[in-house]
Amino acid sequence: MQPRETDRPALPRTLGWGIGLAASTAVISGIAVYVNAIGVKQVPDAALYTTLKNGVAAVLLIGILLATPRARAAVPRLSGRQWLGLGAIGVLGGSIPFLLFFTGLTMASAPSAAFIHKTLFIWVALLAVPLLAERLGWTQIVALAALLGSQILIRPPTGVTWGGGETLIALATLLWACEVIVARRLLRSIPSSVGAAGRMGIGFVVLVGYLVVTGRAGMIAELGAVQWAWALMTGLLLAGYVATWYAALRRAPATVVTAVLVAAAPITATLSALESGSLPGAAPMGGYLLALAAVAVLAWAAWRGRSADALTA
């Protein structure tokens, strides 16, 4: 019996495609970090800014879902357990961590915030081994250690302190790590476009509720055309980020996907260097090169073991 057209994946469900999509996510992330650093200054409240760009991303991703026959047909067939999983990634990834992170940023020192958030790949690796049965050999462990070392070179933890803001950022990072684990399991049985739309759509509802409860919803009416333009642009980048990230998680191990995302840092640094006209110092430059090398080793190790870990096409 020939498979129905709606049963055929739009992209091959292979490890190679997963790594490639993760690399695309890293490129989008590198651009988004640079753009968001400017955009967040254009809106008077960080929570409002986050809600607006997340809302734009949610609308775009839901539109993609509705325009994709295979994904659209999968929605009515979702089980109660799968709906629960969508709710979990909406809360764990698409809403609460954003509020914790941006609230923490107003309280924490910049070095502390940056360093804590960059440890996401470590927490994902620690959770993926027992919860997803992902294997880490010595090659992967050394590469992950090198990746952590690269972050220390790029942004030395000098002046790192610990307080309420750092605690909120750490909680946000841990929630995002938990989201990766839940999403990886869920995406084994649903299209990535369904997961991406659910993550941002449910998360947006939670964020709007937060604005209403805190009395900030009225600020939306005060925004001008320039502020809306920034929300639209950053929301478009966020939609691309989530779409490619979830497509990568459906095809490749969570540890590899999260580690590849670290390659976004050199992209952001390149854009910043083009703007300022000056290159990073020797230590950060060495960190960027070390990060790219570590990511390449992790991707190679995953590719080498693809016969054991590859998903069924």
Would you mind describing this structure in some detail?
The chain is mostly helical. It has a domain at 12-136 and 157-250. Helix content is 74%, strand content 0%. The chain is built from 15 helices and no strands. α2 packs across α11 (225-249) and α7 (120-132) packs across α9 (164-186). The longest helix has 25 residues, at 15-39. The radius of gyration is 19 Å and the shape is globular. The chain starts with 14 loop residues before the first helix and ends with a helix. Mean pLDDT is 85; it is low at 1-7 and 307-313.
Output the keywords.
mainly alpha; disordered N terminus
Mean pLDDT: 85
Helical fraction: over 70%
Strand residue content:
under 5%
* CA-atom Rg in angstroms: 19 Å
Question: Unreliable runs, pLDDT <50, ≥5 residues?
Answer: 1-7, 307-313
Morphology call = globular
State the order of secondary-structure elements, H for helix, E for strand.
Answer: HHHHHHHHHHHHHHH
Ends: how far apart? 17 Å
How many DSSP-defined strands? Answer: 0
What does this entry show, briefly?
By secondary structure, the chain is mainly alpha-helical. Helices cover 74% and strands 0% of the residues.
Give the arrangement of secondary structure elements.
Blueprint: H1 15-39, H2 46-67, H3 69-74, H4 80-92, H5 96-105, H6 110-117, H7 120-132, H8 138-154, H9 164-186, H10 192-213, H11 225-249, H12 254-260, H13 264-276, H14 282-304, H15 306-309
Helix pairs in contact: 1-11, 1-12, 1-13, 2-10, 2-11, 4-9, 4-10, 5-9, 6-9, 7-9, 7-12, 8-14, 10-11
